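Q: Here's a chain of 578 amino acids. Please give me its 3D structure as tokens.
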Amino acid sequence: MSRATFLFFLILFLFHPAIHAGSQHKRLQVPSARAIIGQETGPRTVSLQTPYPGAYTGGPGDSIGFTMFDYNTNGSAYRNLINHGDGTLSLARLAATDSLNLGSWFSCSSDDGFTWEPLTLVEEIGAAFSTSIDALDAAGGTEIVLSKGRADLQLNINASRCAAVWTNSSGPSEGSFPRFVIGSGFDLLLVYVHLPDSVCFASSSDLGMTWTIMCSGQVVDADGYDLAARETNFAFVTAGAGRDVVLVRSYDNGATWTEQVIYDVAGPGELPPDGEEWQPDGACAVVIDSDGNSHVVWSNYLAVGDSNSNPALFYSTEAGIMYWSDASGVLEIGLPTQDPTMDPPPGRDGNFASQPDIAVDDDFNLPFVLFSQLISERDDSLRNYEHVFGVCSYDGGMTWGEPSDIMYGNGFDASFPSLADRVERGGGLLTVHIVYNSDPLAGNWVSGNHPQIPVAIKYLRHGYIDVSVNGAQGEPREFALEQNYPNPFNPVTTFSFSLRSSVFANLSIYDVLGRRVATLVNEKLAPGTYTREWNATGHPRQTAGRRLDSSSELASGVYFYRLQAGDFMKTMKLVLVR
């Protein structure tokens, strides 16, 4: 069967009328190209590397750059981060030095995210924006960054990993909101929206030199879909606002495809007056585990039936994140209790909790989900901040813990998170890799919520207890403090601890003379498992409540960290190697 025939059958499966039932949701209207990026100004000389005068660097993790354009998607998160599985990470992110220079920017790390190369410009792109990245082979060197250019979809090819020496190959013209994946069958499978009313599939076996294209006249929300590939397996999921969640899969390099409605919503005339149900808000994600099974997440609005039994979509503080797998079916994995009077900021697409992303580990296929959620804290303009929340399953997705705010600290907006598909294992922790934007002002300047200012592009390693080592299931049954990882370290390490009940907790670090050099936790916490990252750079010793001068910066040697939580207290050793 030819590749064009494969794509033809895929579209027949995908665009079943059931996909398009339900009411429409007005998407964010992005300003014109002139309003966002101005006119071409020639070569760019400003770097996105931090430190940058005025750039905000609040929030956990490392600032690897900044952007003047603090927006990334109307719905589903783009793939902005790859964990290659060999200690190498690659990142492609939409960013701008100023309102004139919006583009796709690239960085990489060869030491598991502890240090990063300076961000470099891959390609300047237009107002119809998107940036994503994938790798041709996890064990090889070729990387591809997909950009939506002014005319064509541009494939930027880096033949040697981390070299950032790019060659270009044009994709199909006039496409918008593209996403792509690479498998061992289709070298490249690309999906894009051909505005105003056509969704197209394109495949290429020669890195974009030639394309096989199939288009349909059906509508999918611009960012309301996601796709994944793993070896010969492919998965494509749609979750448009107020529409069914539909999963299309192939297990044989695209030779055959199956379509499945995994979440059926009430369409026009189907929801009784005042009847309620959760309906997707246009953000979803899919990942394929090492056994070839798909894991899907999406976020919701509250749909309410009117006098004609037609659903209308509403913002709701009770709408949680939904999860599906073949084994579990549909589960609501919940969200923490928040202020029910909270209002979404103007221009916020999606619900109170939205933009989920998902990853799995390769050994036990334990899924980890993160999502963006408004919190009660407000900025000086009384707009609610949003933070990134995480939640994991210890049994392959059958049951889930309680979501927790992984953006410890306050006074910042953490938005547009993107999660690497691969979870790492080691040191008693499962570690996920995250990129997000950190902003001192809530909202974003594209929606007119605040002035255009430089905000940080942050990378965060977040760890949670490895159940294969610790044997934990669900909420912790005991108080526990784990060995930091890595240990010895330089200069960043991660601590993990568990609380079986709500308690005031203090986690501090001491030198060999018993002097406290850092406090990582000093607050009341709910039951659960927590991680905290510590960067030993810039932490001078303290004595008698005051800091010593800069000559007393922490030196190599043995230190101790202690967790005190109610009656529980435990002290462990860590080693700093300069």
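Q: Can you summarize the key feature?
A: The helical segments are 3-14, 33-37, 467-470.
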